[in-house]
Amino acid sequence: MYVISGSTHQRLGASLAEEMDAEFCGVVNRHFPDGERYIRVLMDVNEQDVVVVQNTFPDKKIVELLLILQAVKEAGAKTVTCVIPYMGYSRQERIFQSGEARSAKAIASVIGGMCDRVFTINVHTPEILKFFGCEANDINGSREVVRYLKGFGPDMVIAPDEGSKDRCTLAADLLKVPVHVMKKVRIDGRTVETSSGQINVKGSTAVILDDIISTGGTIATAANILREGGAERVFAACTHGLFIEDAANRLRVCDDILSSDTLEGVYTRFSVAPAIADAL
Question: Range(s) for CATH 3.40.50.2020 in the chain?
Answer without folding.
Answer: 2-139, 143-271
